[in-house]
Amino acid sequence: MILEKIRETLPEMTPLNRKIASYILDHGQSVGLSSIYAMSEKIGVSNASLIRFARSIGMKGYSDLKHALQEEIKQRLSPYEKIALSELGTLPGDARLRKMIQNEENNLRRTLDGLALGTLEGIATAICKANKVFISGFGVSCHLARVFEYSLLGTLNAEIAVISGSVSDFTPSLKTFGPKDVMILLTFPPYSDEGLTVATFARRREGKLFLFTNSAQCPVYPIADGVVTCENNSLLLSNSFVGLVAVLQLLVNMVCLKDKNASMKIRREVAEMERRGYESARNQEKRK
After folding, report:
1. What DSSP string describes the chain?
2. Which CATH class is domain 114-271?
3. Which end of the chain is more exposed for a tag (fewer CB within 10 A), N or C?
4. Which fold has domain 2-76?
5. What residues contact residue 137 under an 8 Å CB cut-off, 6+ apart?
6. CA angle 218, 224, 226 (to 5 degrees)
């Protein structure tokens, strides 16, 4: 993350850059919302100095630095802060609903437009070849991991495990992860320490690690074999999961088409088991 990078490199900076960095660390939110002219006046440096500072920490210019700060601040806002800062409450009902719908449409469009089809194809292939598929998610992502598990179980004849909860909850299952297995991690801000723990373990065991997240700021990003980025902008809550749900659905369909005949057989078996289960339940009810 940009603020963490500035904080880490602060001791090696020149006095001028240290002055700029210190101001940014103390006033990150205002910098993310201010023009280069306003910031140069507040800090007491030239526009050129701000541009050189941005480039010294790997940015193309001040506008990139400003955008990075905006993204980081947005991710750090709690749901309560987002609600407090939202302008939705000032809009009439219809306009409010249209704005929320438009936001989710944008999330979906940006997710699908930015989707690397080769990466998704590679993940589908790895899932089909894996000895065992592990799906990891914490917090809200845990529930989406369960939905993904349910869809795969009705499509794929393979052993699937969900990794969630506390370290003591998932360790007995995680310890079975091996080089021929696949780990799929769903993680969005605030990124959990458990997610990083799971990813690091999977990397050490030399299995495949695939990440579904919102940006390169995710700490697991650098070590994943493949990354699918899902737009998560929410007007009120911490994250929107519209993009993630759509991509997971696409992935299940791709897995199904890898061996359509096998998937059809599995789905017929599941449907028959469900039919017998409901029939048995109805018969038990009649005998009461």
Report:
1. -HHHHHHHHGGGS-HHHHHHHHHHHHSHHHHHTS-HHHHHHHHT--HHHHHHHHHHTT-SSHHHHHHHHHHHHHHH--HHHHHHH-SGGGS-HHHHHHHHHHHHHHHHHHHHHT--HHHHHHHHHHHHH-SEEEEEE-THHHHHHHHHHHHHHTT--SEEEEE-S-HHHHHHHHTT--TT-EEEEE--SSPPHHHHHHHHHHHHTT-EEEEEESSTTSTTGGG-SEEEE-----SSSS---HHHHHHHHHHHHHHHHHTHHHHHHHHHHHHHHHHHHHHHHHHHHHH-
2. alpha beta
3. C
4. Arc Repressor Mutant, subunit A (1.10.10)
5. 143, 144, 145, 162, 163, 164, 185, 186, 187, 195
6. 105
pLDDT at 112: 94
pLDDT tens track for 226-260: 999 999 988 777 789 999 999 999 999 999 998 87
Token couple for 235: 């007007």
Q: What is the pLDDT of residue 99?
A: 82
Long-range Cβ contacts of 35-41 (<8 Å, 24+ apart): 36/62, 36/63, 36/66
Q: Are 211 and 201 in contact (CB under 8 A)?
A: no
Q: Which two tokens stand for residue 19?
A: 């002055």
Residue 131 structure tokens: 């000895």
Does the structure show a pLDDT above 90 at 88? no
Q: Around Cβ 28, how many Cβ atoms within 10 Å?
A: 18
Domain range summary for the chain, segments of one domain joined by +: 2-76, 114-271
Which two structure tokens, joined as six digits, stand for 282? 């109805």
The first and second tokens of residue 286, run together, are 């009649």
